[in-house]
Amino acid sequence: MRSLASRMSVMTGEGALSVFARARELERAGRSIIHLELGQPDFHPVASVNEALKRALDEGRDRYCAVAGVPALREAIAAYLHRTRHLDLSSDQVVIAPGCKIALFMAMMALIDPGDEVLYPDPGFPGYPSITLGLGAVPVPFELSERNRFQPDPQEIAAKITPRTKILITNSPGNPTGTVYLDDIQRRLAQLAVRHDLLVLSDEIYARIIFGDPYVSMLSYPGMEERTLIIDGLSKSFAMTGWRLGYTVAPARLVPALEMLAVNSYTCVAEFSQYGAIEALHDREGGTQRMVAEFCARRHQFIADLNRIPGFRCAPPDGAFYAWVNISQTGMTAEEICRIMLEEGGVAAIPGAAFGNAGVDFIRFSFASSTAALREAVERIQSVSSAWQRPVAAR
């Protein structure tokens, strides 16, 4: 029997989904599990969004539609990005996709040739190196270190640029660290991109979930309009994870390639869901602002509680809804601690190595769950923490 394509041996899955699968097994066996492994808000779209979707169905908007997305949604996204990120864009630069991951995959497929090098953050979203390898290219990590407050180091990145480097991936706010790139850092990255003629994939899926200064997109910097592709979607900022609605904002010259890939894959995104998305982007009821305020309150309490667990150390993230916890002082590996927390304490979290080699001494917790669930999770972790408080000689 013929073998699978070689790309399948180099692509990887996601640690969050594998932990989730084991957690569900335990639930089916009757165990109580607190899910802090998935990046899924415990909110739902506001009523007007669901009503807009239902209205679209009642009006018969369940047909094939424009490959790049219905014009009204593309216009709404351009207006939304102008309102929230001060970007002046044409709706013709927007291509709708069935989820942010597909938007990322299609953008990379359109840009990468075998042998090209792709700079990406480590720790970071596992899809960056996986997709790169699947396309026959070379992933080149740059470290987000705790000593540097998980900010990219432009000097390190500059040293790793070669004649084969084609793409720089940025992710601010970042998964899993919650880092919001500083203005000076982004400016220097933009200068590197211009100097070396790099394309930049700016993953901005968490751009609305920030707890400090207003967000600045990579596309805002001089020389970046013609070389930056924004990857974004509605899953996180509008609590619409299951709707599978993402989009790419690209320079006009690249849009036909993205449309060609859409034609050859998903054809178009469900028409009725796009009309629900239009209503979500207007956010007339302030749902996103209320959700972010709640995440901010949870962040404050959850980080303080985690720092009281023996061997845990965590700085408050500037964005997203993840606690990135250093566990190096526990004397155990992150995998061991996550196993104990899940199997004995009923708390699901992700070992940091799932996000890259730089995450080996960390665990990622999502605080997109209720305050009550987060408090109980900490109590459960405290109850099993004796496993890593015993003297090393006794283990």
Secondary structure elements and pairings:
Layout (H helix, E strand, L loop, with lengths): L14 H14 L5 E2 L11 H12 L12 H15 L8 E4 L2 H12 L5 E6 L4 H8 L3 E6 L10 H7 L4 E7 L11 H13 L3 E5 L24 E6 L12 E4 L5 H9 L7 H12 L4 H20 L15 E5 L7 H10 L3 E2 L1 E2 L10 E5 L4 H14 L11
Parallel strand pairs: 1-10, 3-4, 3-5, 5-6, 6-7
Antiparallel strand pairs: 2-8, 7-8, 9-12, 11-12
Describe what this molecule looks like in 3D.
This protein is α/β, with parallel strands linked by helices and 395 residues long. The chain is 37% helix and 14% strand. It has helices spanning 15-28, 47-58, 71-85, 100-111, 127-134, 154-160, 183-195, 255-263, 271-282, 287-306, 334-343, 371-384; strands at residues 34-35, 94-97, 117-122, 138-143, 165-171, 199-203, 228-233, 246-249, 322-326, 347-348, 350-351, 362-366. The strands form three sheets. A seven-stranded mixed beta sheet has the order 2-8-7-6-5-3-4, with helices on both faces. A three-stranded antiparallel beta sheet has the order 9-12-11. The chain has a two-stranded parallel ribbon with strand order 1-10. Helix 7 links the parallel strand 5 and strand 6 (199-203). Helix 2 packs antiparallel against helix 9 (271-282), helix 3 (71-85) runs parallel beside helix 9 and helix 4 (100-111) crosses helix 8. The protein starts with 14 loop residues before the first helix and ends in an 11-residue tail after the last helix. Mean pLDDT is 95; it is low at 391-395.
